[in-house]
Amino acid sequence: MKVSEAVRSRKSIRDFLNTPVDNALLKSLLEKSSRSPSGGNLQPWKIFVLNKETMKDFLIFEEGWVGDQVQEYEIYPPKLKEPYRTNRYQLGEQMYGLLDIPKDDKKARLEQVMKNFNFFGAPAGFFCFVDRQMGPPQWSDLGMFLQTFMLLAREAGLDTCAQESWSIRSSSVSSFVDAGEELMLFCGMAVGYKNPESVINELCSERQPLEEWAHFLTHE
Fold it and tell me: Which of 17, 102, 121, 200 is the most exposed place for a label (fewest CB within 10 A)?
């Protein structure tokens, strides 16, 4: 698969088959992903993998968690200005429209949101942590690592969904994986094979036209 095809076909999958994912494949993809750009070669990503039985164990543990949860960061800036607010709103309406969930059916919308916390049924996944000492440049490194992983996963025939939503469940996640206090949960990543019959997997987010965000400083 060419890189351009992996980029074109990668999207957030929200309904997975229960087809197993081999640990050896996950290890290979993660090792290859470690070649991602990293300022000063800090390699700030810390990854905890769940697969098969450990995924089941985690979901049982997480559902029964009775302690407080800490939200590590604001997933979206408060009071989003345009065009960011509209971009986010339109994606939500696209998704709920595909699912035929009206705006006033808050219960059904919440049920869909909560599917984040079972990895959308994916048999495998991982959590990406970063040392609390790190700053925005290293967070950028995490993004490049995760993007590299997702493109390599497409090459291998896998599908993914990066999930910042897990940041609001950091206490239970950190407890289960036994992450040290110096580590902060950035996101989760669902990994598996998409359900081709699920309507939600038809969702393809729109992108703004190039001329709205790219400025060519040239006389041509």
Answer: 102
Tokens of 37: 């750009």
125 vs 80, 115, 189, CA distance in Å? 30, 14, 5
Residue 184 gets the label, from left (phi > 0), alpha (psi -120 to 50) or beta, of beta
* End-to-end Cα distance, the chain: 34
DSSP 3-state assignment of 131?
strand
**Rounded Cα–Cα distance for residues 154 and 136 (Å):** 27
What are the tokens at 10? 């990668």
Full set of structural domains in the chain with CATH: 3-75+118-205 (3.40.109.10)
For 57-110, what is each residue's pLDDT tens digit? Answer: 999 999 999 999 999 999 999 999 999 999 999 999 999 999 999 999 999 999
Question: Which residues, 6+ apart, have CB-to-CB distance to 209 below 8 Å?
Answer: none
- Exposure of 165 by Cβ count < 10 A (0-12 exposed, 13-18 middle, 19+ buried)? middle
Contacts of 156 (CB under 8 A, 6+ apart): 25, 29
The amino acid at residue 143 is G
Contact 187, 166 (CB under 8 A): yes
d(CA 68, CA 66): 7
Q: Quickly count: other Cβ atoms within 10 Å of residue 130's Cβ.
A: 21
